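Box 4.2: Ligand-aware structure prediction
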Amino acid sequence: MAVTGLAMLLYLIAHMLGNLKVFFGPDEMNGYAHWLRTIGEPVLHHEWFLWIVRFGLLAAVVLHGVSAYQLSRRDLAARPVKYAHARRRASYATRTMRWGGVIVALFVVWHLLDLTTGTVNPRGESGHPYENIVATFDTWYGDTIYIVAMLAVGLHIRHGFWSAAQTLGAGSPGRARALKATANILALVLTAGFLSVPLAVMTGVVS
Amino acid sequence: MRLTLRIWRQPDAEAPGAMRTYEVEDISPDMSFLEMLDTLNEALILQGEEPVAFDHDCREGICGACGMVINGQAHGPERTTACQLHMRHFADGDTIDVEPWRAAAFPVVRDLMVDRSAFDRIIEAGGYVTAPTGSAPEAHATPVPKPDADTAFAHAECIGCGACVAACPNGSAMLFTSAKVNHLGSLPQGAPERDTRVLDMVDQMDAEGFGGCTLAGECATACPKGIPLPSISAMNREFLRASRRR
Ligand code: HEM
Ligand code: FES
């Protein structure tokens, strides 16, 4: 859980920063997308770097999902009889890890069909991510899906980063506050960074 | 005080159980929760009914025998054991729900009593030091730095009551296991078995059917002895270190 989660977290940071290119206009954004496909050349072929990252991410998502399933099965089996006097436990981010993770996974499928393959994108022109992004966020459902998913990602990271740090043995009484603060800042910055794109299109800042 | 109690009644491990409602009167705010249950039991015996079975021994918060979930909280609303919880923390006329620890690894024996021998087996797996016994050794023979002694003592406070498992949404025993691992692991006497201790205790913990830790933090909030949540991360550190050296 922890290792695959942190690998995806590193990817999300790079992805969020890359998305901000949209604020510098179509040439910058589309040029950046093209450059991504040339990384490693001439040692690597065109798009090879991208495919290596994609396989790494796929492995991380699958392993993360499988461990989440196994962990959840175990945890539910360990408390077969529920308490009659139920009490709301733990924070919202902590309680929503399972369903939040499923929502994020479903979102990733939609996201790939939208902006990678273009299948569900109103425009879906390959090599023109800027125009495809604007097209998606000109629809009400595009905005809704992305906003809900990004809030879910933020919550998942808020608990996930803190939890992963403890799993990997980085926690101590002296470091508890710093780790919580890092988790909150990461969650906030990533959510705000990702959300800035649909919000910019909705308000006409990017068109 | 006059109280309505809703208590889990289950005649034995196999029989089905249910919450039963009882009224108790003349409860003094100075009584402990267990004394309040004693009062109920005296009345039940006079009526020819089976008294409510619950574990208890020292009644001074040091043995870890008592334990029940009171209004959804392990050991009730205060950070202490059920035997040291006083009725002044409740109001006249309250309805109080009392249930046994709920975990697959802690099967109910009867009413509020659960079988906690899974904890004993975790301790047997490595929660000891192989030291020659006999008379107490001279205190200066093995110097222990003060911070290490403090860490060891803070973790040695665990009384094995099982509140951490009862409070954890996953029924995980990580806080309990980490208390013993950190207690012995921070002392020179515990050093020779440091690696096998954490590996064997964690193996046993998993084999008993306790859940995994998802850092919900409920265990540390419920612990009457204040074993802190980062102890779990310290045990994970020990576990990773021992796994690398295996
Ligand atoms: C396939 C979709 C996903 C599912 C079903 C899922 C589910 C889960 C579950 C059930 C947990 C354990 C909850 C806990 O420890 O309380 C978890 C932890 C975590 N998740 Fe996800 N998640 C998914 C996607 C993601 C993504 C996209 C990221 C990237 C940021 C991520 C990062 C993390 C991290 C860092 C942890 C903490 C690991 C640990 O506790 O050791 N997850 N996830
Ligand atoms: S009876 Fe010993 S701790 Fe409560």
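In the box above, the bound molecule is protoporphyrin IX containing FE. The interface with chain B takes residues 71, 74-87, 89-90, 94, 97, 159, 162-163, 165-173, 175-176 of chain A (CB under 8 Å).
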